[in-house]
Amino acid sequence: MRDAHADAHADARADARADVPDRPDRPGTAGADAALGAGLPKRERYEELRSRVSGLLEGDALADLANVAAAVYEWLPDLNWAGFYLRRGDELVLGPFQGRPACVRIAVGSGVCGTAVATGEAQVVRDVHAFPGHIACDPRSRSEIVIPVRDVRGTIVAVLDLDSDRAATFDRSDRDGLETVVDAFASRIDWTRV
């Protein structure tokens, strides 16, 4: 028999999935009209995304990360890739994502993702071609944002990586908004299980 706690989580997940219209997938193209949150001001867009992400978490680390990547990709405009790289020692290994196939391993300190881990700070890159050591997993990408993900002890365990095929897609408000989204799920993931 299900308890009230399980029913509440099921209701929250249903709410997070509700009112999501069917739409063609973005097969390698970015477009503001394709993203569900495109019409909202950024602050509201990230508040709603944070709520949706929180409602999707079920306690299975890998499935939760897959749903977070899908929700981010579905909700934010102008993306051609959204996903995670998981920290394994001195490298990042490809985790759940949406978009074209990607680089499987990135050394800490290399590229935008590795720099985010090495510095412990989010990276907002308006033009990836001007970023020293940029790793071009998808040559269409022109701008990128990477948010470090920390476990409950404050250790960087992953990064959330978003790419756009448009220059200057991301700014400080995107960084701030995505950091709140990461805060909504990072402490609820058992990072030893991914």
Keywords:
6 strands; alpha+beta; 194 residues; 6-stranded antiparallel sheet; Beta-Lactamase; single chain
What does this structure look like?
This protein is an alpha+beta fold and 194 residues long. The longest helix is centred in the first third of the chain and has 15 residues, at 42-56. Helix 2 (42-56) packs antiparallel against helix 3 (61-75) and helix 2 (42-56) packs parallel to helix 5 (172-186). Strands 3-2-1-6-5-4 form a six-stranded antiparallel β-sheet, with helices on both faces. Helices cover 35% and strands 21% of the residues. The chain has a single domain, classed as GAF domain (Beta-Lactamase).
CATH homologous superfamily identity: GAF domain
* Large-scale geometry: globular
Could you estimate the helical fraction of the residues in percent? 25-40%
The CATH topology turns out to be Beta-Lactamase
Q: What is the average of the pLDDT values?
A: 88
Number of domains: 1
Biggest sheet: strands side by side, in what order? 3-2-1-6-5-4
Question: Please, how many helices?
Answer: 5
